[in-house]
Structures are given as C-alpha cells and as structure tokens.
Amino acid sequence: MPLVLCRVDDRLVHGQVVIGWGRPLAIEFVALVDGGVATSQWEQDLYRMAVPPEIEVRFAATEDAAARLAEWQASDRRGLLLTGDIETMAALHRASPAVVHRINLGGIHHRAGRRERLPYLYLTDDEARALVALEADGAEVFAQDLPTSPVVELRNIV
C-alpha cells in the first residue's frame, strides 16, 4: 500500500496523528522525517512510546527520506509521511512529486512572525509563499486537522 497521508505537523507524533488519522486510515507505519530526530536515539524512543506497538515508526533525515520515498510508496503496509515543517515536505515533493503530491497541513502552531490562518494553522508570509510555490509546482496543498473536519484549500488560507 502507498503512503496514504503526507502531513506537516510541528508536533510530529501525538494523539491527533496516531488516533485521529492513524486509526481511520489504518496506518501501519509512520515515516517521520526530521534531521534532528533521525540522529537522536532518545527522541526516537519518545516518539515510539507515543504509538501503539502495531505501528512502526521509521526515522529519516530529508536526504535519506527522499531516497526511500519509492520504497515506502511500494510497501505492502499503509504509511504516513510526517514532517515538522513546510521546507522539509517541499524538499520531499521536489524529490518525488508523484509520491508527495497531496500535502496535508495539520498543525503549524504560533511562534514569532506567524499569524493565525486557521485555529491550528499559523504561517509567516514566507511560509505562505512557499506553500503557493509548492502548489504551483503541482502539489495539492490543503489544511485539515482531523479526517472528520472539512478540508480547507490553500487558496482559502493564504
């Protein structure tokens, strides 16, 4: 089965991802792409504790993940591709636009320079421009915090 969800969520693995998306989509593995986490055993252990034992968590830095996208897409297990930022997801889209095509903005939270676009989505103007460029490059970008929530198209966000 392919990667069934490509999600940007700055909290990475948490209940909304595991329960909210994982169960309805029958996720069997999470490919967590983050350079810092990929090199930190204790962070990996923390994230593994956040998922039930039947869901495997795979960790990769961006370059490694880009090289493994075809493998993950061809897997016989249902996967979720997860990044903590737009830049990483954009790099993965550039590496394999056919695999990383539909991009879910699930949780990008407040920090200096960001403004609220949706209750769970805060973006800087640069991040908004990066998303518009990503869509111009052929990606479908949308916001949706949970599968039961309405999809919000990018044009209604930026």
Written description of the protein model:
By secondary structure, the chain is of the alpha/beta class. It has one domain: Phosphotransferase system, sorbose subfamily IIB component (Fructose Permease, 3-Layer(aba) Sandwich). Helices cover 35% and strands 26% of the residues. The chain contains six helices and nine strands. The protein has helices spanning 15-22, 35-38, 41-49, 62-74, 86-95, 125-136, and strands at residues 3-9, 29-33, 56-60, 79-83, 102-107, 115-118, 121-123, 140-143, 152-153. The strands form two sheets. The protein has a seven-stranded mixed β-sheet, with helices on both faces. Strand 6 (115-118) and strand 7 form a beta hairpin. Helix 4 crosses helix 5 and helix 5 packs parallel to helix 6 (125-136). The longest helix is centred in the middle third of the chain and has 13 residues, at 62-74. The radius of gyration is 15 Å and the shape is globular. The model has no long low-confidence stretch (mean pLDDT 97).
- What's the gyration radius in Å? 15 Å
Instruction: State which percent range the strand residues make up.
Output: 25-35%
CATH superfamily: Phosphotransferase system, sorbose subfamily IIB component
Arithmetic mean of pLDDT: 97
The figure for the number of domains is 1
* Main pleated-sheet profile: 7 strands, mixed
